[in-house]
Specification:
mainly alpha, Serine Threonine Protein Phosphatase 5, Tetratricopeptide repeat, single chain, globular
């Protein structure tokens, strides 16, 4: 039970999230409603506890995004993309992925879904940051990757 609110609805993360990480993320989500400093500390603690757990990156970049801490959101999304690519054994550089799209099935599993979702999140972060051209590049890459799948 977290100390912020035991009656709040739980956030559902991936089914294979380690229980201690999930507990920290649940507490962080609850804390984010009343104590942003503590929430951030808990999100970061969850990521430190298991830096391979992709949900920790997702939760933290969303936290930053909704507080308009766009540089922090971008940095966290990029770190999540790097970790997903490392786990999936594909290049983290989305531009390289687009150039070599025939080599990679980015709809293969949860890791690749996380990568694509986080890439989309990065595009929104770029848009909100006023980096429209870079956001368009990212969205174009996502479109290219999706069209490569349609051609299979």
């Amino acid at each position: 039970m977290n100390r912020f609110n035991s009656i709040e609805e739980r956030v559902i993360f991936s089914p294979d999230i380690p229980a201690p990480v999930n507990a920290l993320l649940q507490e962080a989500v609850a804390a984010s409603r009343c104590d942003e400093t503590e929430a951030e500390r808990l999100f970061i603690e969850a990521r430190r506890l298991d830096c391979q757990c992709l949900d920790t990156y997702f939760a933290l970049y969303k936290f930053y995004f909704y507080r308009a801490r766009l540089a922090d959101a971008e940095q966290t999304a990029l770190a999540g993309l790097e970790e997903a690519a490392r786990q999936g054994r594909f290049p983290a550089d989305y531009k390289r992925l687009a150039r070599e799209k025939e080599k990679w099935n980015l709809y293969a599993n949860g890791i690749t879904h996380f990568y694509l979702y986080s890439l989309k999140a990065l595009a929104f972060i770029k848009l909100r940051s006023g980096q429209d051209a870079e956001a368009r590049v990212i969205l174009s890459v996502i479109s290219d990757l999706a069209s490569a799948l349609d051609q299979e």
